User: What shape does this take?
Amino acid sequence: MAFLFLSYLATFLFVWKQKKKWAYTFFALSTTLSILMFLYHATSTLNLNF
Amino acid sequence: MNKTGLYLANSGAMLIVASVLMGAFIVQFGFNEEPCPLCLLQRMGMLGVILGLSLNTWFGFRKEHFGLVILAALISAVFSIRQILLHICPAPGEPTGYGTAVMGMHLYSWAVVIYGACILGSVVFLFITKEEEKDTKRKPLTVETVIFYLVILITLANVVSAFFECHLGPCCENGPCP
Assistant: This one.
């Protein structure tokens, strides 16, 4: 989870440095990872659904 | 509304969503409630919404920035609706919902309302703003920059908070990782 937030932090830093392509790349990475994390939480046998 | 007014309104919208994230920290530390895995994912959605708005701050109004806001809001609304559906019908004897209710609604229910407002707000902005040139880079006003730095600070706080709760990877079963 912290890695995902770190990825969002990197995205904001790229926006600050006005590097738009890198910001889009890291946003795509963060969003894809958060969807994958959601799917893991939704399908895991562990009690993560709360 | 003139251009400066629109950019200030854009930063105002950023501040509103950022204040929701600060509110989540108040619930986390004030009421001693560790955020659930789905709650953390919903916080990320709010950051995605803020990201789209901050692109407007640094690169001018563009329709793809609002597209990004709408995308982040839609994906995160799915996370919130999933959590609402998990708690909509509690087991007998168990409390309704997860966590403390704020003004009668749980945080994940509020999240859906906020994502809906973000989508609606983006539609309004798309109607009233004039698109900037493709490779525009603008110098934000001081107040816009301050709000942007506040957002970076909130994101950093979330990195630290999520690290202590779930470390780098997925969360652990039944609460914070040992």
